[in-house]
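Ticket reopened. Same input as before:
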Amino acid sequence: MDNGRIDRIIDKHQGDAGSLIQVLLEIQSENHWLPKEALERVSEKLQVPLTRIRHIATFYKAFSLVPKGRHEIHICMGTACHVRGAQRVLDTAQDVTGIKPGETDLDLKFSLETVNCVGCCALGPVMEVDGKTHGKMGPAKTADVLRNID
Amino acid sequence: MPLIHSTDELEKVRQEILSRRDPDRPCISICAGTGCLASGAGEVIAAFKTEIEKQGLQADVNTRETGCPGFCERGPLVVIYPEEICYLQVTPQDVPEIVSETIKEKRIVDRLVYVDPATGEKATIESDIPFYKHQERNIIGSNIRIDPKSIEDYLAIGGYSALAKVLSRMSTGEVLEEIKKSNLRGRGGGGFPTGRKWEESRNAPDKARYVIVNADEGDPGAFMDRALLEGNPHSILEGLTIGAYVVGARQGYIYVRQEYPLAVENVTIAIRQAEEHGLLGENILGSGFDFTVKVHKGAGAFVCGESSALMTALEGRAGEPRPKYIHTAVKGLWDRPSVLNNVETWANVPLIINNGADWFVQFGTERSKGTKIFSLVGKITNTGLVEVPMGITLRDVIYKIGGGIPGGKRFKAVQTGGPSGGCIPEELLGLEVGFDELAQAGSMMGSGGMIVMDEDTCMVDVARYFLDFLTDESCGKCVPCREGIRQMLKILANIAKGKGREGDIELLEELSEVACDASLCALGKTAPNPFLSTLKYFRDEYEAHIREKRCPALSCKELIAYHIDPEKCRACMICLKQCPAEAVTGGKNLIHVIDQEKCTKCATCFEVCPPRFGAVKKISGEPVPAPVPEEARMIVRESKQK
Amino acid sequence: MSEILLQIDGREVKAREGMTLLEVAQKAGISIPTLCHHEKLDPYGGCRLCTVEVEMRGWTKLVAACCYPVEKNLVVRTRSEKVDRIRKMILELLMAHAPDAIPLQELAKEYGADRDRFEKEASFCIHCGLCVRYCAEVKKKNAVGFIDRGTRREICFIPEIASRECWNCKECFPLCPTEALQAAYVLTLSFGQVQG
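Engineering reply: fixed in the latest deploy. New output:
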């Protein structure tokens, strides 16, 4: 991600240090991860210590300091999904992708994350792939959805 | 639409909108909330548009993409006005028929209406469906009547009339008195009286004040704030603006979690529309009152639902709570007086102003007034959002509205209040829902999650689940929370694995006491609740795990085993073929046996064994019966003998 | 600033408005144990070891003395059965990480804490944040910060800043109650060398 793009995002927020998290969220959303150079640029432009930026980038779940796969799988582990068998959906997703939550495969195809409730509790267990919600998941349906992604 | 300069002009605009609308003209409302979209509402909407065009009905019928009416379980939901005909689980294939039959011929498409699974009775009209019938839908009822992306729709149902009333005819003191009189208590968890909070801020010496919407709905299992912000964002803005007027704030924030993209989108559009119409910005409706609102996306941290942590996050830092010995109402965001209320609390404000506090207090109990939205989820027949008057019993919510437990299972407990709450057992189902009543039972209202659990849910596992959630979500700043939860989780995980020891319960109780008494913020202070409440009502389950290494709910993987009853096995090969671990041996006419070494306890065999055989057994706390001897494994089928 | 009268452990004590309970107690020579407090730094309220009992209009509550602003007529008890029980548990929890830290051992003796009560997870850092806050608030260098959250929280140096600033400063070292800090610093430098 080049500095020009980062500067544009910062300018959009009028260079206000209070909007640091919003700036980082936009970089994350455009670039899918936060490279070290991007953090340094933000630190310099917003005059915020790098320690604070790193704390934020590791404190909030939306950020990643490593590159993400092309497809982001989020398995909801909220209570409603949990009591309806979210663990089995997660187990299946791990089997199919060969990675554990928090990991990305070597081909950069999939990143797997667990999330705490996406607010689709009525459809639990829920899996999100690239922002699309799949409801009422079971092991077979999970495998089916994931195997059909290139 | 032009800038509106006065309250009179607002009324004119409203009349003008209504004059363009024919209440008798058919309108197809399709829920476009996150739940229904996940069930395919997007395709249904597209199909309606195509079909209406194809049948040349563009001039005769409207379509409207609305917010969530609550019955997510049966989505995509379609309601056809003016008759209020409600169709459930609509697919794009159903659309041509709905248009030709219901819109053109005014005939009902029978297979799409609600059928009561208990009585077989049909309900065509939305309000006749038992799920809706027993609710009191003051707040969420508007969701299905408006397109959340249309300010005109909101104005058409009387939107911003409360703001107009406040700005033109009420002093700030009068508004405050009305809110105090209504006894509105915070819907986000603690139940702090809203009027008192506003007053505290208003009386704080610092003149730069803020009002904030807490839409960081983090309690797993709760999604009413998402539905309100997605479905009726202007009502939240209207409530917030009234609050700002009372406390004297010129800047407001909406802190909404980025996991809710549709809520972010809809509220951002609503702010822009309100600004364009002079309902936000400078000199609102010519009153001289200035107020602007910014959206701040939460980046994913449960602890940011706590007021001081949320404010720290708004300042652009890691969301760690701060000591609140001085209330955030006095010293909050940037150390300035800040009123933080939850989405649902703000949504109540315009209703109270429009209808009066006397109207509001007719709902509810002595100390908990009004209605409350709950998300009724888990092992329950009708899942979704329900709005009920405070004081309704848990039994009525779960059985009358929720339709009871599916699959012939037995109710075990209902979890309320999220990770800070607790589990309420069957013997307390008569409990009236209210802030104090739930707290007395060892749980809390929280933001309104109600997760129903049946006999298959292990209460030790529930406690373990929440502690696991909290080890990840604690900010890690203070010792009793960070280290206390870490140790509690270790002990609970061991108990669930059958490695519990005598004294574990006492140690857990001791750790709970320290976390409750000495933690910095509410997250730590309430973290032991899921453990304490399950221990209070289900102590025998803890003891069975520890002493007998038995999981009474047959749920904890390490403590259960599957085996095949040789008397019942018909050697049908189904479980043998489907076992992912290849742990089932046997063959045609050869009774199947599970190899306990290979079994991963995934339950596949248990689920696929045909109910008429019911040969796969789940056991806990007893040895697995020895496999049937080789010579007795052959099944000789009578029909073939002849 | 107006003067406030309050009672700590049965003694009448004078305080100025805006002072914390801990400051007032220290001024009066009443000792309250702390691990994350430092007079040059803003109150933090992380270790909770300074938890005391306060009584106000018949209500008793437990508060962190380092953050609690004094109020008139407050009745404070710096020791009680409950307070001691909390401190003992906090020490036991911390000793799972830093069993050999001298300040912890001394306090453990006072409160009867068992250093082996919890399974050892020797990470040495007790997250008092003294190094992080001193570097930020006093030195304004921000060479060391927190990362992550919950039970995964850690302190971490920024190698580029640390290699430039720390060698001639090291003022945070003596603040560290467990010597975890030196370990983190040395690790960072050696990591920097490997990379550089």
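Chain A touches chain C through eight residues (CB under 8 Å). Residues 20-31 of chain A form the longest helix (12 residues). Please confirm and we'll close it.
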